[in-house]
């Protein structure tokens, strides 16, 4: 069964149809990358999967559940944002724990998950700091950790590396790819960077004006004919 299934998905902003009718299946444990020019609808599509944007037509399935009317908090997904969206007044630990506290996860379980994620992301020594006292790469890892502690079935990334310098970008890219293999989860990763797409993707979706131009492996999309 597909991890995500979009059937004739439609999205409008006012009179503008930014996604006219989109069909796509994303496989279980697949690393799927959405690429395309600015404004082509990558972010909108990701926000639709997250439940942050309603759809105007079609159907969206996560696993075998139709989620058109399911709120974000009840979808088995976690999103990592470009600007990290961390709470500046909270410690790294509390930033990672917050979502679980809202769900009334038992304290010991929260502690276990936060420490496990911090260890995997190598940020254990920063748990008491506030985000403002961290580097961009460390903040990015906290944002990743906050998503990881939820043990989601699907991770959504909205250009998560674009605020990092070139060296860090390569490093974090490699880490996210390794994590995806270790966690055995489905990943949807939005970028406008072709190198990111080629090195991370199992398959790439090329979007233009809300329409899929191509779906295939990096070789199929970018390779020589
Ligand atoms: P991308 O992520 O590929 O850059 P977006 O998904 O952000 O593209 O945007 C797709 C199109 O939808 C663009 O034309 C953008 O201007 C428009 N759009 C995105 N969000 C809104 C919104 N909240 N209201 C109106 N138009 C929007
Ligand atoms: P991105 O490409 O990363 O989505 P944008 O600058 O296009 O960045 O969009 C930033 C935010 O503004 C997004 O939440 C998007 O939904 C919203 N947005 C984008 N285009 C429009 C628009 N034309 N009208 C209103 N909101 C928009």
From TrEMBL:
Coiled coil: none annotated. The keyword Isomerase does not apply. GO terms for molecular function: ATP binding. The keyword Methyltransferase does not apply. Keywords: ATP-binding, Cell membrane, Membrane, Nucleotide-binding. Residues 4-225 form the ABC transporter domain. This is ABC transporter ATP-binding protein. It comes from Candidimonas humi. The chain holds residues 1 to 225 of 358 of the full protein.
